[in-house]
Amino acid sequence: MKVFSAIAVQGVVEQLVPAFERDHGCKLDFTWATAPLLLKRLQSGEKADALILNRAVADTLLTSGGIVAGSDVVIARSATAIAVKAGAPKPDISTPEALRQTLLNARAISYTDPAAGGASGIYFAKLLERMGIAVEINAKTKFPPPSGYSGMFLPTGDVDLAVQQVPELLHVPGIEIVGPLPGDLHMVTVFVAGIPTDSAQPARARALIESLRTAEARALFRAKGLDPG
């Protein structure tokens, strides 16, 4: 069964896969990417049997008839946060002004390229514009590859700060989360599972969605920095 999934939930879903495959007698073939990149692939004609996307992309597919109406289920929510190399001093991001100054003081930072479509990257790029520091920050920004993790540059010392959703930061060893974006800058992404209208295995897709809502799955979501739906 082919599954298109946003990378933010990868750490949880991969742990649930072996039991699901054993219980349902099938193999799951995952494509991991940002939700907008997955949307482009679906719109270009690629097919999947089950989808795990952010709310905005899921709503786009619901409107166009690409997801079975009523099959969409919220499975988790994720905050965008800032991380540093493990053991490094944690900067002050307690207020919007403190965050602004911390970003300006940083030697280099990383966040996901907005062109890749990731929710945190798009939001953070707009936030830099809103804060009036986009030119300064983008001049010292290092983008990870598409569907990559901004935290990958922290252990190597290439950047001082990484910005991404909490579970994506936790996916990278050797880094520590400072905290979520402060005050009214706080941003949460909602993740939704659904069944494509052209799914070849809708019953198994529905079973997969239900497996993401069990007590075990909810505990894993919490452990990986997400709030279960």
From TrEMBL:
Pfam families: SBP_bac_11
Origin superkingdom: Bacteria
Record's protein name: Substrate-binding domain-containing protein
Organismal lineage: Bacteria, Pseudomonadati, Pseudomonadota, Alphaproteobacteria, Hyphomicrobiales
